[in-house]
């Protein structure tokens, strides 16, 4: 059997819902990991995706985060949040309201896992990190440690398993991962500690499934809305698929669906699609 799995930072599911539904109908993925929902668990558009044959598990608060998994293969063993996940309290400099200034760190909805037929997946939205030295940067590194610890057992399992999502890290300096590494000197997404966290994640038995570029020379997944970055292909590869050996061995195709980034009202990310050829 062929199983098509995708990951997409949708950048507000309610704002992009027509785009998402159109893409689901045309691309026909079996399992979809979504990030940056910007909606609460209760306000997720369950009915709309159900009309296309998808069950959904969501995890969100209605603020800037939120993750979900859609599946035509069933959803079981759902886990919302990472065991031992750190929280983030925010600070006065970035607060837009008093809710961000908390005595106790807030555990954000950035991870959800489910078993979908023959595969198990995590959908993750790794913290951005803001700036090197910022409290959010330290939070990002701690969050990645919690992710690594959370996936150890699944990575070692004999069933196909993958952690898919927006990692907010550019894996290498190569042009295949970033249009101009010189633009990121001293910034987050490319620092040694962030890349070391990716290496630690791979060390538990996961491999980076790099998508083909299709019509383009570079498999970028994100382009800023500003400065004509998409038409000029000033992008980066930060939406990643980290998978265990049974998953990797079953990969028959993988690509970035860049067409979904085109036009008005789109997310600033494109979907990453992976096809698996599995025994029935």
TrEMBL record:
<dbReference type="InterPro" id="IPR004808">
    <property type="entry name" value="AP_endonuc_1"/>
</dbReference>
<dbReference type="InterPro" id="IPR036691">
    <property type="entry name" value="Endo/exonu/phosph_ase_sf"/>
</dbReference>
<dbReference type="InterPro" id="IPR005135">
    <property type="entry name" value="Endo/exonuclease/phosphatase"/>
</dbReference>
<feature type="domain" description="Endonuclease/exonuclease/phosphatase">
    <location>
        <begin position="6"/>
        <end position="269"/>
    </location>
</feature>
<dbReference type="Pfam" id="PF03372">
    <property type="entry name" value="Exo_endo_phos"/>
</dbReference>
<keyword id="KW-0378">Hydrolase</keyword>
<comment type="similarity">
    <text>Belongs to the DNA repair enzymes AP/ExoA family.</text>
</comment>
<dbReference type="GO" id="GO:0008311">
    <property type="term" value="F:double-stranded DNA 3'-5' DNA exonuclease activity"/>
</dbReference>
<dbReference type="InterPro" id="IPR020847">
    <property type="entry name" value="AP_endonuclease_F1_BS"/>
</dbReference>
<keyword id="KW-0479">Metal-binding</keyword>
<protein>
    <submittedName>
        <fullName>Exodeoxyribonuclease III</fullName>
        <ecNumber>3.1.11.2</ecNumber>
    </submittedName>
</protein>
<keyword id="KW-0460">Magnesium</keyword>
<dbReference type="InterPro" id="IPR037493">
    <property type="entry name" value="ExoIII-like"/>
</dbReference>
